[in-house]
Specification:
28 strands; 31% helix; alpha/beta; FAD/NAD(P)-binding domain; five-stranded parallel sheet; homodimer; 9 helices
Chain lengths: 404, 404
């Protein structure tokens, strides 16, 4: 009997969790497992705001994929996925192609610019390790350049964050801690620095408990962030942004613009002819793409409706990992042709949003929390993600223990 | 009797040495001493190549001026000199003006671009702390950006150094050590990085012993530097440089161009109507400007002919400090109106050119040396400069002790 080919695309939270669970569930002789990823490392997407601000080195945010996979069972291919041809059970890569019996698509998110002019060209987005390093260095270069110019341009020291959602707020929390360090490094008066957050929605952190939102905004404002709520970015230019509130428009000059207001699924989904909405596929209860019983979609590329709220579940690491876990179990059922497929039921333990290394807000097991307690919980959430994929040794290597 | 006003312009090697020696020689009631400097710190100009490459933090390269001056005797003014009016014994500053009975001009060097098109706009020069930080960050930003671009531009990883003189060679020595660190930091294949040194003269380090030059060039070539000797930079563009050798021209694309091939005296000299050549004044044996017996010029703005070679002495820290020492003695003679002015006689102990932190070439007390012995000597030279100005406590604070 021919061993089935299982191909997993992407080594983010969803894909890597599928891989490490599947390698435990099946034996060497039961399946050929191939994991494809653009880089030879996994990175903690939910920690990228720290690497981008420069408050945590990017090497603390990533680890080699070969550290967590069992190379006797899993073949790792470093390549970029170009397109899936589900009718032919093939995947085109930049440097090769693969055929599969079972496919797991875990290609994660990309930045969504909603067609805002100039955003792609002139704004950064906190997308991956490469982008995070560039944002860190771009901001630092602006500070390093300021004092070299005879005509001082204070807009070099202005940082605009587009979006006061989860990523925007967490990034602001790091920036307010980073800026005083940069001011010392480059002999700059902190009063000259501006951090401006522009949010089109009528509140920061839409969907969060209002009392916690107020706490978060208050903390960031006291540390110098200017919030422009209910204000939309209309255009991004080489000099900054143009915003609109009602009928009034205004130009804000800024040396750095970071767009943290929109994500979508992978463009590979669009390319491959799946039924999709912004790169996300509405999957069946077993996480399969409509029409293809052998194609599972986990993480930010999958779309599931929360029946309690009638809205899609948000694209979070928590859900991606739970999906990966279930996907591995269902793959084992299919490979062995015994047992029954299980439907996905998310188990939302809570959400914690950091405000720098020593403050946070969150709701955990239905309980609201803020300050050092929430910050402690955030670090436990971060360490738990490491534990679930790489066990205790990965927590020791990469975990966050600056908890007191 | 009115106390004379002594004004010292510039807190580089020459000006600061004049100040610290003069404050020891005269009493509080003998003179008003005012030191003017653009920054509130002194920096080791001869170490700036390290800060520029990023191999030594710029805070290791500078110290507060108030650490070494006696504030009972010396008034420190942080301001920028605009113009000297020697006929009226006045100095115009950006934010004020001073009148003097005795003036010491120690305004140091500026970059000389020899009218090469685009050099001022598109090339960096290792001029001061601000510039050094910007060069370090510019190079780092090029490396950080490389992997974020879909179309990789390898010229981002090309660094051109204009000039294989003393500064150019020392900067190359640091760069070859820094580049492997940057490659690790930004996941870049070191083979993609190019370091190109362009020198118009027929040899690197003109004036140095040929055997030592060969050693230095060999060391740097083995670490990856490409030398283009006898090749002139014709133009600098936003994309790189255009060079010419004989009749042939060539474009070299480069993300970073550092111009290390020319220095001149301060433009304040030109502005102030002294007889000058490229901002340097041919001083009398007592270091005085022609026509003004109360204006002393020390350091890189002064020009003295070495009668043995019939060429000017090079602008070095060694000579600047010796001039400062003599200038302080002569000022004390004038202030007290007793004794006789002494002529300046340089005492060249040697020259050591570093090739990174662990290698160097040099001639010290007439003896040629290279390798770790020369490197040790270089660090002793650096520590000696600290000792002469700030005594043992400054050596302890800022000295180089990584000598084994």
């Amino acid at each position: 009997m021919k061993k089935p080919n299982v191909v997993i695309l992407g080594a983010g939270y969803g894909g890597l969790m599928t891989t490490v669970r599947l390698q435990k569930l099946v034996g060497v002789n039961e399946a050929n497992i191939t994991l494809v990823n653009k880089y030879d490392y996994h990175y903690e997407t939910t920690w990228l705001h720290e690497a981008s601000a420069g408050t945590l080195h990017h090497d603390r945010v990533r680890y080699p994929i070969t550290d967590v996979i069992d190379r006797n069972k899993v073949q790792f291919v470093q390549d970029t996925v170009v397109k899936i041809i589900p009718q032919e059970q093939r995947v085109l890569l930049e440097k090769g192609e693969l055929s599969y019996d079972y496919l797991v698509v875990a290609l994660g998110f990309e930045s969504e610019t909603f067609g805002i002019k100039g955003l792609k060209e002139y704004a950064f987005s906190i997308a991956n390790i490469n982008a995070a390093r560039q944002i860190r260095e771009h901001i630092e270069y602006q500070f390093a350049t300021y004092n070299t110019e005879i005509e001082k341009r204070e807009e070099r020291l202005t940082i605009v964050v587009g979006g006061a959602g989860f990523t925007g707020i967490e990034f602001l929390g790091e920036l307010v801690n980073r800026v005083p360090e940069l001011c010392r490094e480059y002999d700059i008066d902190p009063k000259k620095v501006r951090i401006i957050c522009v949010e089109a929605a009528p509140t920061a952190l839409p969907g969060f408990d209002p009392e916690l939102v107020e706490y978060a905004v208050g903390v960031l404002e006291r540390k110098g962030v200017e919030f422009r709520i209910g204000t939309a970015i209309k255009e991004c230019t080489p000099e900054g942004i143009i915003v609109a509130k009602g009928d009034e428009t205004e130009e804000i000059k800024a040396g750095t613009v970071v767009w943290a207001a929109g994500v979508r699924g992978s463009y590979v989904i669009d390319e491959s002819g799946f039924e999709e909405m912004r790169g996300r596929v509405k999957v069946d209860p077993f996480l399969r793409a409509p029409g293809y019983d052998n194609v599972f979609i986990v993480g930010d590329c999958s779309l599931m409706i929360n029946e309690e709220t009638n809205r899609p579940y948000p694209p979070t690491a928590q859900i991606a990992m739970q999906q990966g876990e279930l996907c591995a179990k269902n793959l084992a059922v299919l490979i062995r042709q015994q047992g029954e497929l299980q439907p996905f039921k998310p188990d939302i333990k809570g959400t914690v949003c950091s405000l720098g290394h020593d403050d946070a807000i969150g709701v955990v097991f239905g309980k609201k929390m803020w300050g050092s307690k929430a910050s402690f919980m955030k670090k436990m959430v971060d360490n738990r993600a490491l534990y679930l994929i790489g066990g205790p040794s990965l927590v020791v290597k990469k975990g966050k223990f600056n908890i007191f």
